[in-house]
Amino acid sequence: MAFVLPSRDPILVLGGTGKIGKRIADNLASAAIPTLVASRSGEAPSNQWLTGVKFDWFDKSTWENPWKAAGEHAVRAVHIIAPPIVDSFDLMKEFVDMALTKGTRRFILQSGSPLEAGDDKLGMGLLHEYVRKLGTEGKADWAALRPTWFMENFSEVQSHIDSINNEHRIYSATDKGQVPFVSADDVAECAVVLLTQPAPPHTEYLLVGPKHMTYDEVAQIIGELVGKRIKHDHLTDQQFQDRMVSLGMPEDLAQVLAEYEHRIALQKERHSNETIQNLLGRKPTCFRTVAEKVKEVWI
Ligand SMILES: NC(=O)c1ccc[n+]([C@@H]2O[C@H](COP(=O)([O-])OP(=O)(O)OC[C@H]3O[C@@H](n4cnc5c(N)ncnc54)[C@H](OP(=O)(O)O)[C@@H]3O)[C@@H](O)[C@H]2O)c1
């Protein structure tokens, strides 16, 4: 009887210690898939399936580390999170080109709902266009995940945690705009499907949660769960941008983020679809479920 041994070739997760990457790595390890967890720290949870690799977008001498760590094995797929700068395309293109020369074919991009393929506001829109072209030419497999805002921003982004805990406030420039917040758990599970499925995806996935919510409603739910009055403070775009810069974000990136918040205020983020249901075979997670699970962080 013929049988196929599971591949020992690892999957590379860039940003492997971040909100999405650590969840992807957890999921891959649970499925007994060897995984290279790349970040500047090079740290990985202690797990036989996970190997930490030092990787810094701004230090090209580290770019080959994942293939060195893979040794005799091929790196069979890469999950890409952009470097935290506006003009990130040239770096990412060079990295993808290098990965292709090493025999890696599949690239799963972590993009975002406002970024169409070819949008040059951030490098990931251009990378989306680039890998799509490589796919058309038969040189690479690809998918672009375009999630909306993560539910876990409120529990895992330090500036939100601090303002909720210290000021009982959530700051945004979204006004009464609605967002179909999506769970980072769901986004990561979708990424794992696309990293591991045999068939090349060759398409994009707009990932949204089950309900359109304003930041007022988010503040209300968190307040109910922790027994405090949490308020959403609407900032002007300029105030929001200044706040991001004061928290350490580069000016040009803060400006793009402020523009994206403004899109929400204009009700341009009110997407609905069945993409998560179709990819995962279950409904997307709702905000209250996520918030209930992590509420200790706000107490
Ligand atoms: N937050 C949202 O609501 C949202 C929504 C849609 C799309 N997105 C997209 O998702 C991406 C962010 O993902 P995330 O939330 O998982 O990120 P995150 O939690 O901020 O984590 C960032 C990861 O990247 C690593 N990293 C930072 N600087 C690096 C560098 N110079 N070289 C190599 N690795 C570096 C970090 O580890 P080290 O610090 O150890 O290097 C960490 O593993 C962004 O591209 C964003 O546009 C976010």
Properties at a glance:
two-stranded parallel ribbon; binds NADP nicotinamide-adenine-dinucleotide phosphate; single chain; 12 helices; Rossmann fold; globular; alpha/beta; 299 residues; 7-stranded parallel sheet; UDP-galactose 4-epimerase, domain 1; 2 domains
Low-confidence stretches: none
- Tell me the overall shape: globular
Number of strands: 9
Report the CATH topology name of the largest domain: Rossmann fold
Q: How many alpha or pi helices?
A: 12
**Ligands (ions, cofactors included):** NADP nicotinamide-adenine-dinucleotide phosphate
* Total of domains: 2
Order of helices and strands: EHEEHEHEHEHHEHEHEHHHH
- The SS-based structural class is alpha/beta
CATH class of the largest domain: Alpha Beta
Q: What is the helix fraction of residues, given as a range?
A: 40-55%
Distance between the termini: 57 Å
- Radius of gyration equals 19 Å
Q: How are the strands of the biggest sheet laid out side by side?
A: 3-2-1-4-5-6-8
Going by CATH, the architecture of the largest domain would be: 3-Layer(aba) Sandwich
CATH superfamily of the largest domain: NAD(P)-binding Rossmann-like Domain
Average per-residue pLDDT, rounded, comes to 97
Biggest sheet: strands, sense, closure? 7 strands, parallel
Portion of residues in beta strands equals 5-15%
